[in-house]
Write a structure and sequence with these properties.
This protein is of the alpha+beta class. About 45% of the residues lie in helices and about 20% in strands. The N terminus is likely disordered.
Length: about 500
């Protein structure tokens, strides 16, 4: 518990940019970032991306997936000059980083970026320069919303700075004008409020480029393949294309039916698309084939989640206990055990708080369920401002969109109690985006508008609540509450 309060005790401070503002930093660095144009064997342009110079001699970085299908490639600088990509010095398809050499006349000097000596941190201001959809030298700014370890990609920065196809291979800068990452992929999940999740690989991951291949683009065109299917799977999965992710696993299983890993990943995609029957089969298969304990604890967590949702509580408990036996530092497992105890043994059972407390000790942002429960306790004590902080953390760390509904709802009522009406309305509207037939959210909106003195919007909300309740929900208690409020609309 102490760790959580320490986390919330940190206060935001204004970032000091020194003598340079964002405009000056962009002007100083945009010449180092270039457009990558890729061509097929018939010299037809097939795609574009981004890259940036790391040495004055023309050595640069881009993403492997930018040049993967290129028989030939060239770059275009911000001054409008074109240069051929002479060779691929090294590449790592799993990390999705390629080091390339630009062909230029002797004596040509390219403007190289400065590489940051220190890692960036959550909350840091950042800006990205790239070429989304071929729109050259596009700048976007934001913050680092999280620092995550993603399978194969290693450490990545989750950023709020917008990126799009074509931004891949671009540079992510800190506010000292130093490169901290390479913009690589994004996720747009329509079921989660159209939230755009963008990621940049930590530039420090480039230290793993230890080969000195120096091969031509033509040779690289034949050799750059995703030998490890995980990289291809991760791109499909993180983009929300679960059908493609499953297809990639199917191909790998066909090649190597005794390999446990594609079963593990396919189960993950099945879980995220709510196909529990197939997920269970794959998790059991992965456990049976896995000769080590690598990721086996997460397979048991997956089984526990399936059994919990199927209300097979004893089987769920056994799966979670097996996961903890393998890895007693699995925060996700403790968090899920807390939810199990809540549903099976009741909200007041001591295992509920014990389990989510253990999860939060291991990782303060690992358990949205635990953060939500702490928030509810604070709300019941009328400590609304503190409760809002925990509900916000729960929303930010929630991995399943629909589970955020309760957090938005409770945070909205805390805002309502504090008479912060605009924030309350925003949260209740978020509930409705997650569930269009949420009668409670319409009632809450009606109450909020009523307290604001906006009778028209209040009555509209209560009438909508009545319409949905009469047609869909048919909750008698809600009907009585709505009738009481609607009597004031006459």
């Amino acid at each position: 518990m102490t760790k959580i309060f320490l986390l919330l005790a940190l206060t935001a401070s204004t970032f000091i940019y020194g003598q340079k503002n964002l405009k000056a930093l962009v002007k100083e660095n945009e010449k180092s970032v270039f457009l990558v144009q890729c061509f097929d064997e018939k010299s037809q342009m097939i795609s574009t991306g981004s890259g940036f110079f790391i040495e004055n001699t023309g050595v640069a970085f881009t993403n492997v997936h930018v040049i993967r299908d290129a028989f030939k490639a060239r770059i275009k600088t911000i001054e409008g000059k074109f240069y051929e990509v002479e060779k691929i010095i090294d590449y790592n398809p799993n990390l999705d980083i390629a080091k390339i050499k630009i062909k230029a006349v002797p004596g040509t000097s390219f403007p190289a970026v400065k590489i940051a000596a220190r890692n960036a941190e959550k909350g840091d201001d950042v800006f990205a320069i790239g070429n989304p959809d071929g729109l050259e030298s596009t700048v976007s700014s934001g913050i680092i919303s999280s620092v995550r370890s993603i399978t194969n990609y290693g450490e990545c920065y989750q950023i709020t700075a917008p990126i799009s196809p074509g931004s891949s291979g671009g540079a992510l800068f800190n506010m000292n004008g130093e490169v901290i990452g390479m913009t690589t992929f994004g996720q747009i999940d329509q079921s989660r409020l159209n939230q755009n999740l963008n990621f940049a690989v930590n530039i420090k991951n480039s230290k793993y480029l230890t080969n000195n291949l120096n091969i031509s683009t033509e040779k690289a065109y034949k050799e750059i393949v995703y030998e490890d299917f995980i990289a291809a799977y991760m791109r499909a999965d993180l983009s929300g294309d679960f059908e493609r992710a499953v297809e990639i696993c199917n191909l790998q299983i066909k090649k190597s039916p005794s390999n446990w890993l594609p079963y593990h990943f396919r189960a993950s995609s099945f879980l995220r698309s709510d196909n529990y029957t197939e997920a269970e089969k794959d998790l059991i298969k992965a456990i049976q084939l896995n000769p080590s304990n690598r990721l086996k604890d997460m397979d048991y967590v997956g089984l526990g989640k399936i059994y919990r949702r199927s209300r097979m509580f004893e089987k769920s408990r056994d799966a979670y206990l097996k996961a903890i036996e393998i890895n007693n530092k699995n925060a996700t497992c403790f968090c899920n055990m807390s939810a199990l105890a809540y549903e099976w043994l009741g909200p007041e059972n001591e295992l509920v708080e014990y389990s989510y407390s253990e999860a939060l000790k291991i990782d303060p942002l690992s358990c949205a369920f635990g953060l939500k429960k702490i928030g509810e306790k604070l709300m019941n004590k009328k400590e609304y401002e503190k409760a809002i902080q925990f509900f916000t953390l729960a929303i930010e760390s929630e991995t399943e969109g629909l589970l955020s509904l309760n957090e938005y709802y409770n945070r909205g009522f805390c805002y309502l109690e504090l008479k912060q009406y605009k924030s309350a309305i925003s949260d209740f509207q978020s509930c409705l985006r997650l569930n269009k037939t949420d009668v409670g959210a319409y009632i809450a909106l009606g109450i909020t508008y009523s307290e604001m003195g906006d009778k028209m919007q209040s009555c509209i909300s209560f009438n909508k609540a009545k319409e949905i309740n009469d047609l869909v929900v048919k909750d008698r208690a809600a009907a009585e509450q709505i009738s009481g409020w609607l009597s004031q609309c006459k």
